[in-house]
Write a structure and sequence with these properties.
Tetracycline Repressor, domain 2; CBS-domain; three-stranded mixed β-sheet; MgtE N-terminal fold; elongated; 6% strand; homodimer
Chain lengths: 454, 454
């Protein structure tokens, strides 16, 4: 999101140059707004802006810039300048930036970073993408069981500036095993000489570092937590995931699903800001695949060309019949895909889903088949030729009903099959299902039609 | 989400009866887990479970039950029992419950609730659905500018149990005007005799009570806040919206959009738990509308029946040509709908979007048209009859390209038109766009075909 008025003011002040004006303008902005205002500046201008504010604020603003801007700015700057910035950045954000850089650039930067930070970065870099480990930060406060409440508050006071949150504090034993949680609210309410070990809530809900980020988001959202602790495979605390990062994941995953369900594929930089050639490549490859699959409708129809030549009216109902399958399939696929994404169902429920969708497909098929029957029975004589009116109506009604049932069933099953195969069920998109059902719909339609009319 | 093992244990303990067992089992559960375990119990069993725990915990668990269960439980219970529960519930959650009840039931309950709570409920009930006012809670702590830090911490200590958060605290003047924000982190770090008026951050980002909840979610997510203050039209603080409620909104809106984009319509209770008849009604009405629109493909084709009778091969390419429009349209509609939902574009950008999509539609059309040309040029002689091969190939290539451009443009424009008309752009779903483009695609295809081949 850009903020053009502020950007223009910033650029004018940089050109004069009026460094005091820039500082005082930035003082009035939230870091999010400052980053938005910087977005339309040149890389060198952003560096000049950053040089005018304290390092903590530089790090906050830089963390919020779009990832391509971050990469360009780092590549253009002195490694010493960058290493100072990296040391001040939130631990999760700096790793996200480093992941975008060429390995050679990272290898050049790391030796300049303090040893503690370097170790922390190496540690966070190892987690697979989209895992809890990749999402978490190590800027958390871990309290020891033997601290008193007063001691813990004093400890938090010292750690407050360098931690993402001091509101949820996790308690660990001498071996870093996660044993409890104490919120700042608990600390404020407790007697100052009470021990953390006695005050803490021992029932901590945690996630594993290798869990998928969608599951992490689901857990945190379910409980309404500010943060959720991340543990390794033996239960030692390795990081925390905070609510704001989860919010980003939820929006990102919903976008990814929505775009996949519309056969687009993810757009890393958003509509209109992604380069034309990238968008074309993504969209064209999807459409070409669907088009290639849809070519099979021609082959299927060619198989029935004698029937079409003999009974031309049959061809007039082809789009109607096959689109019924596409629409009912898209509907079922959307419902099942979303229910999978929300964790309401899993592929293990497939029997229940099949039963539900067979019943639903029958009910929907009878509904649409009846409309199709009525409409076909009203076919004008000029179009009908010598085809018996009621036979035609019966063929259309039956074909619509069967194709609707078939589409519903395929639409419901494809996302489950995809999930089982390890493919994102959102790829079972409306166009994908429609194309799949179009081809088979032609065969169903002509099988029914030729058995009555030829 | 249900938890069947715990439910079974609860039910067994209730049957014995073993009240001590129930209490100690509930002590080990988070309120979210306790509510999940209660979901599969009968209403009377849930009341018996609630009676075994303190009132604050009753209120927490009850708030997390599904809305239909809450309504049934209230209808079956003594009003006195319910009023005690309502007084202990979070202010936003109890209003959500009351909104689901018959007005007569609410009128019977309100006189039993304490006057302060009654006034608060009446006040919150007045906000329109999906507004910031309907989403907000009044369980917040407002600090006065003239307090000292030590005084504020003492005040928070007293208010902590009855407030949704004490981490973000809003500062008001004597007339309740919002003038600043102080976080608990700021308070912990500050000198104890400092005045709140000097410590507070005066730049508070707030939302208006009548703003749409999607905008509220976007603001809170953008800044990564724990909560955002809600003000009336003159700037007086009336409530706060917390991060967990926004998370629910984000998930809810993404689900609503996803289902609309798949032509399903919102399912209030989730897949498999919504009653069959409700699901059938929603799905059948969508499919019937699309089917009725798709009937026009028959009328359009009937118009060209002489051309089809004369050149049968033309009818074999109909599904291929029209599906191209549906797929490219679905793609463009998805991209534009999602970009609108994320606030990346607005209907005012329509010129830029048209330019982008015309260029993209041409690029995609040429890609697919080329494939169509090649495939049509390979039509076997037996199917081709006396139709000139290269003319047919040229007709198909050109029709595919034009329909692809047309579909792309319609798909991109429909969501913008819908938004402008005040309709959710997500209704410009893949099946909707496909159906619209199918009908017009038939006309485009035969206009091109008949001009070359007849």
């Amino acid at each position: 999101m850009r903020d053009d008025t502020v950007s223009t003011r910033l650029r004018t002040m940089l050109a004069q140059p009026d460094p005091a004006g820039v500082s005082s303008l930035l003082d009035q902005l939230h870091a999010v707004e400052a980053a938005a205002a910087c977005e339309s500046l040149a890389d060198s201008e952003i560096w000049r802006v950053l040089d005018l504010v304290p390092i903590e604020r530089q790090a906050a603003i830089f963390s919020l810039l779009p990832s391509p801007t971050q990469v360009e700015m780092i590549s253009a700057a002195e490694p010493d300048r960058v290493s100072v910035l990296l040391e001040a950045m939130p631990h999760d954000d700096r790793v996200d930036v480093l992941k975008q850089l060429e390995p050679a650039v990272v290898d050049g930067l790391l030796p300049l970073v303090s040893q503690t930070d370097r170790q922390d970065i190496r540690n966070l870099l190892q987690y697979p993408e989209d895992s809890a480990g990749a999402l978490m930060t190590t800027d958390y406060v871990a309290l020891r069981v033997e601290l008193t409440v007063a001691g813990a508050i004093e400890f938090l006071r010292q750690k407050a500036r360098a931690s993402e949150t001091i509101y949820y504090n996790y308690v660990v034993d001498g071996q870093q095993y996660l044993v409890g949680i104490v919120s700042l609210r608990d600390l404020i309410l407790a007697e100052s000489d009470m021990l953390i070990g006695d005050l803490m809530n021992r029932k901590v809900i945690a996630v594993q570092a290798d869990q998928d980020q969608e599951q992490v988001a689901r857990e945190l959202a379910r409980f309404g937590f500010l943060a959720i602790p991340v543990v390794d495979d033996v239960g030692r605390l390795v990081g925390i995931v905070t609510h704001d990062d989860v919010m980003d994941v939820v929006v990102e995953e919903a976008t990814e699903d929505a775009l996949r369900m519309g056969s687009v594929g993810a757009m890393p930089q958003g509509y209109l800001s992604t380069p034309f050639a990238t968008v074309w490549r993504k969209r064209a490859s999807w459409l070409a695949c669907l088009f290639a699959a849809e070519l099979l409708t021609f082959s299927a129809l060619a198989h029935y060309q004698d029937a079409i030549a003999a009974v031309v009216v049959l061809s007039l109902f082809v789009p109607l019949c096959i689109s019924t399958g596409g629409n009912s399939g898209a509907q079922a696929a959307t419902l099942v895909t979303r229910a999978l994404a929300l964790g309401e169902i899993s592929p293990a429920d497939w029997r229940r889903i099949v039963r539900h969708e067979v019943a639903m497909g029958l009910a929907l098929g009878i509904t649409l088949g009846t409309i199709g029957f009525v409409r076909a029975s009203l076919t004008p004589l000029s179009v009908l030729g010598d085809v018996p009116r009621w036979t035609l109506a019966f063929v259309i009604g039956q074909a619509v009903a069967v194709i609707c049932l078939w589409g519903t069933l395929i639409g419901a099953m494809l996302p489950l099959v995809f999930r089982r195969l390890g493919v994102d069920p959102a790829f079972a998109s409306s166009p994908f299902v429609a194309t799949f059902v179009d081809v088979t719909g032609v065969v169903i339609y002509f099988t029914i039609a030729t058995s009555y009319l030829l």
